[in-house]
Specification:
The complex is a heterodimer of chains A (244) and B (318).
Chain A (H helix, E strand, L loop, with lengths): L1 H13 L5 E6 L8 H13 L3 E6 L2 H11 L3 E4 L1 H11 L1 E8 L5 E2 L1 E5 L13 E4 L13 E4 L3 H9 L5 E5 H10 L1 H5 L2 E5 L3 E2 L2 E5 L5 H12 L4 H7 L3 E3 L2 H6 L2
Helix pairs in contact in A: 2-9
Chain B lengths: L1 H18 L2 E2 L15 E6 L4 H13 L4 E6 L4 H5 L1 H8 L3 E5 L1 H7 L7 E4 L15 E4 L5 H11 L5 E6 L1 H19 L2 E6 L6 H9 L4 E3 L9 H13 L4 E3 L2 H5 L4 E5 L1 H17 L4 H4 L1 E2 L4 E6 H6 L12 E3 L1
Parallel strand pairs in B: 1-3, 2-3, 2-4, 4-5, 5-6, 6-12, 7-8, 7-9, 9-10, 10-11, 13-14
Antiparallel strand pairs in B: 11-13
Classes of the chains: A alpha/beta (244), B alpha/beta (318).
Chain lengths: 244, 318
C-alpha cells in the first residue's frame, strides 16, 4: 500500500500535476529577468512538488489568486501588508541582501522648486495603489503599471512627482541621459522591508515553509536567489515581528 | 426553499453592488439618492471587456463618490435620448466610455464630460467645448520608442511611411523631443496613396534601423500591412507596429495602452473638476501614460536579443 502511494506521488510530480502553488509578486523586483525567475523558480520549487507562478502586475496577481488559489507567496512587503488580512497570511521568512532586510524608494520630479512638503493636491505617479505606507505625503495617486510609466507620466505632464525604485532610475538614465539629468530626487522613502515568504493560514503549512526556507538557503537555489537579487533569507523573529 | 431564495438574492446583490459597483437598471427613471455634490455618471456604449477595465479602475480610484454606471450594450436608439436623460439626472460629471456615448453628448449638454476609449475623437472637435476633457487612446510617440529602448537599445533611425496630414498631426509635434530625449531620428516617407506603400517601404527600410507602422488609413491597406510584416520578418528588420495582433503575425514590438491606468487618469480629471473647480477644457485631452508592451520571441531571436531581456516586456508571443 505504502509503495503504491509513493508511486502515485512520484507520478504526480513527474507529470507536473502540482497540488500546491507558490505565487511571486514584487513590483520592485528584478522585472528585467522575470522569464528567468519563472523558469528557475519552476525548476526549484518543482523539485519539492510545488508549482511556481510569476506575476508582473496587480492584475496578473489577482488572476493568479483566482486561478490557483495559492498556498504560498513570495511578495513585496507592502503588498503583504495590504493583503495579509484578506488572504490570512503568516510570514515565514524575509529575503536578505548583504544582510540587509530593507530598501528605499525615491520621490522624484522634473519640476523646479517642488519639495516633498508641498505636494497636497499634486499628482503622484506610482506602481503601488496605496503609497501612504511608502511616503508620508498627501498627494493624488496616478496608478501606473511600471515605474518607467511613472517617470514618463511626469514627462507628459500627467503627474508632478513619481515614486520609483533606484533600479528604475538607472534604467531611465541609460535610455534618456538628457531627461534623467533634469530629474530631481526630493525625498527618500522610509526603509521598506524586503519581500517576504508567507503562507495562507489553513491552506499552506509552516513545516512546508520551513522546508522551502532550507531549500532557498541551499546551493541549489543560488541561481534563483541571484535572479531575485537577494543572497539569503532569514526567519529571525526580531525582524519578522517588526512587520506584524 | 426560503433559504435557497435568500442565498440567490444575496449572491445577485454581491455581484451587482460589491463586484461591479452601482449599476443602473433603468436609466430613464434613474436619479441619484442622497446627493453630496460628488455624483458621477459613467455611461458605457457597449459590452467590451476593456471598457469594463476602465470603469473598474475609476471605481477603485474614487473613494467617497456616488458613482453609477449604465451600459447601453450598443442600443443606439436609447443613446440618442442621452442629452435629455443626462440633463434630468444632473450628475456633477459624466464619464463617456466609447464613441457612441460621446457622439450623442458632444455639444448637447453643459454638464462636464470626461471621455475615453474613443479612437478618432478629433472628428467631434471636442477641443472647442468648455465642458469636455478626456484621455486619448494614443500612446505618445516618445513612450513607444522609450519602451522599445528598454529591450532593443541600439537604434538611431526610425522610418515611417504615412500621408502628409498624418505626419503633421501625429508625428511632427514629437520629432524634436524624440531626438532630444532618446537620440532617435524619425525619417518620414510621405506618400498619398496605398499604391505607393510597397515601393516606399523598399526605399526606406534599407536606410533606417527600425521600421514603424502607424495607423494611417489613408495610405495603409491590407496588402501594405501584409507586405510590411512579411518583408520585415524575412529580412530581420525590427518593426514597431500599432497593435498586438500584428506582433503575433510577425511584427517585432508593439506598445498599447494600459486600460486600468486610463481609469486612474479619468478619476484624477474628475477630482480636478469637482474638488478643484477646474474647467474641463483646461484639462484638455491627456495622452495615455500606462503602457502594455508585446514582443515577438522569434523576431527577438533573429535580432540576437538575449532571452533574459524579454522579461521586461509585458507579453511575449510565439
Amino acid at each position: 500500500m505504502k509503495r503504491f502511494l509513493v508511486v502515485i506521488l512520484m507520478m504526480t510530480v513527474s507529470l507536473g500535476v502540482y497540488s500546491q502553488t507558490v505565487v511571486y509578486y514584487d513590483p520592485d523586483g528584478n522585472l528585467r529577468r522575470i522569464v528567468d525567475i519563472s523558469s528557475e523558480g519552476n525548476k526549484l520549487f518543482g523539485s519539492i512538488g510545488l508549482k511556481f507562478v510569476v506575476t508582473a502586475d496587480e492584475n496578473s496577481f489577482n488572476n493568479a489568486l483566482k486561478q490557483y488559489n495559492p498556498e504560498y507567496f513570495i511578495m513585496n512587503s507592502i503588498i503583504y501588508q495590504s493583503k495579509r488580512k484578506d488572504l490570512n497570511l503568516e510570514i515565514s521568512f524575509i529575503f536578505l541582501k548583504n544582510k540587509n532586510y530593507t530598501y528605499t524608494k525615491k520621490l522624484v520630479t522634473f519640476q523646479e522648486g517642488l519639495t516633498a512638503k508641498d505636494l497636497r493636491d499634486k499628482v503622484l505617479a506610482s506602481s503601488f495603489k496605496d503609497v501612504s505606507d511608502i511616503v508620508p505625503i498627501e498627494a493624488r495617486v496616478l496608478k501606473v503599471p511600471k515605474d518607467l510609466d511613472a517617470l514618463l507620466a511626469m514627462k507628459f505632464k500627467q503627474a508632478d512627482v513619481a515614486i520609483v525604485s533606484e533600479s528604475s532610475i538607472e534604467i531611465f538614465r541609460s535610455i534618456s541621459p538628457f531627461d534623467s539629468s533634469l530629474l530631481k530626487i526630493i525625498y527618500t522613502s522610509r526603509e521598506i522591508f524586503n519581500p517576504v515568504f508567507c503562507y495562507s493560514v489553513g491552506k499552506g503549512s509552516p513545516s512546508k515553509a520551513k522546508e522551502i526556507e532550507r531549500l532557498l538557503l541551499s546551493d541549489t537555489a543560488k541561481q534563483f536567489m541571484s535572479l531575485l537579487m537577494f543572497d539569503s533569507v532569514s526567519s529571525d523573529s526580531k525582524i519578522i515581528s517588526k512587520m506584524k | 426553499m426560503k433559504k435557497i431564495f435568500f442565498v440567490i438574492v444575496l449572491k445577485i446583490f454581491i455581484l451587482n453592488v460589491v463586484c461591479y459597483g452601482s449599476v443602473i437598471s433603468d436609466i430613464k427613471s434613474f436619479s441619484f439618492p442622497n446627493k453630496t455634490g460628488k455624483e458621477v455618471l459613467i455611461l458605457i456604449s457597449d459590452k467590451i471587456s476593456t471598457f469594463d477595465e476602465v470603469k473598474d479602475s475609476i471605481y477603485d480610484s474614487l473613494k467617497g463618490y456616488n458613482i453609477y454606471t449604465y451600459n447601453f450594450q450598443g442600443d443606439t436608439n436609447l443613446m440618442k435620448e442621452l442629452p435629455d436623460i443626462v440633463s434630468k439626472i444632473k450628475p456633477n460629471v459624466v464619464v463617456a466610455i466609447g464613441v457612441s456615448v460621446l457622439e450623442n453628448l458632444v455639444g448637447k449638454v453643459d454638464i462636464p464630460i470626461v471621455f475615453t476609449m474613443v479612437i478618432n475623437y478629433k472628428k467631434f472637435n471636442v477641443e472647442k467645448y468648455k465642458n469636455i476633457a478626456g484621455v486619448s487612446l494614443q500612446v505618445p510617440v516618445e513612450s513607444v520608442f522609450f519602451n522599445l529602448k528598454t529591450v532593443y537599445p541600439n537604434f538611431r533611425k526610425v522610418g515611417v511611411i504615412c500621408s502628409q496630414d498624418y505626419y503633421n498631426s501625429f508625428i511632427l509635434p514629437f520629432v524634436d523631443s524624440v531626438k532630444l530625449s532618446l537620440e532617435v531620428e524619425i525619417v518620414p516617407y510621405i506618400i498619398s496613396s496605398s499604391k505607393d506603400y510597397i515601393s516606399s517601404y523598399n526605399s526606406l527600410a534599407k536606410n533606417v534601423d527600425v521600421m514603424w507602422m502607424v495607423p494611417d488609413t489613408s495610405v495603409l491597406d491590407k496588402n501594405s500591412i501584409i507586405y510590411f510584416i512579411n518583408e520585415s520578418f524575412k529580412n530581420s528588420k525590427p518593426t514597431v507596429v500599432y497593435s498586438e495582433p500584428f506582433v503575433e503575425a510577425g511584427g517585432f514590438f508593439s506598445v498599447s495602452p494600459n486600460y486600468s491606468t486610463i481609469g486612474s487618469q479619468v478619476a484624477l480629471m474628475i477630482r480636478r473638476i469637482i474638488e478643484d473647480n477646474v474647467s474641463p477644457n483646461k484639462l484638455g485631452i491627456a495622452p495615455v501614460v500606462g503602457t502594455f508592451t508585446t514582443i515577438n520571441r522569434e523576431m527577438a531571436k533573429k535580432l540576437s536579443i538575449d532571452e533574459n531581456m524579454l522579461g521586461i516586456v509585458d507579453k511575449v508571443v510565439k
